[in-house]
Design brief:
alpha+beta; transmembrane; membrane; Roadblock/LAMTOR2_dom; transmembrane helix; five-stranded antiparallel beta sheet; Beta-Lactamase; 3 helices
Length: about 140
C-alpha cells in the first residue's frame, strides 16, 4: 500500500507538470485498460472516474478499428477527438495503462502530443499496471 501511495504521489506532480506546461489543459487522468482511475489532475474524483470509464470503451473501439488495418497488431497508440469546446487525447502509456487529457479549444495540439509522449517516456514504469487476478478488489472470485 505504501508503494502504491508513493507512485500516486509521483504521478500527481508529473500530471500537474503536464497540465501547467500546456495552456488550455483542463483534466489529466491516468487509467488502467479496464477503465479504473489510477491518478488524476484538474478533475474531481467523480469526473475522473467517468472519464476513465469512457476511455476504456474508446480504447477498445480504437483497437477494433486498428485490427482492420493490414499488418496492424490491433493496439491503439493515440486517439484525438475534436469537439465543440475543446479536444480529447487518449494515449497508450505502458502495458495496461493509458493517459487521457481534456483540453480547451485553444490548446496547441502539437505541444500537447509532445508533452504527453514525454510524460509517458518519463514515467512509463509507474503507468504500467499488471493484470488483476481473481480475488483482488473489483474482481469476482
Amino acid at each position: 500500500m505504501i508503494q502504491q501511495q508513493s507512485n500516486q504521489t509521483n504521478m500527481d506532480w508529473m500530471l500537474k507538470d503536464l497540465a501547467e506546461g500546456v495552456p488550455q489543459t483542463r483534466n489529466v487522468v491516468v487509467l488502467s485498460a479496464d477503465g479504473l482511475r489510477m491518478a488524476q489532475y484538474g478533475a474531481d474524483t467523480d469526473t475522473a472516474d467517468r472519464l476513465a470509464a469512457a476511455c476504456a470503451g474508446l480504447q477498445s473501439l480504437a483497437g477494433a478499428v486498428a485490427s482492420e488495418l493490414p499488418h496492424s497488431d490491433g493496439q491503439m497508440r493515440l486517439v484525438v477527438i475534436e469537439m465543440n469546446g475543446g479536444f480529447f487525447y487518449l494515449m497508450a502509456a505502458g502495458a495496461g495503462a493509458f493517459l487521457a487529457v481534456l483540453a480547451g479549444d485553444g490548446v496547441d495540439a502539437g505541444l500537447m502530443g509532445q508533452r504527453m509522449r514525454d510524460l509517458v517516456l518519463r514515467i512509463g514504469e509507474h503507468l504500467s499496471t499488471p493484470p488483476r487476478q481473481a480475488g483482488q478488489a473489483g474482481q469476482a472470485t
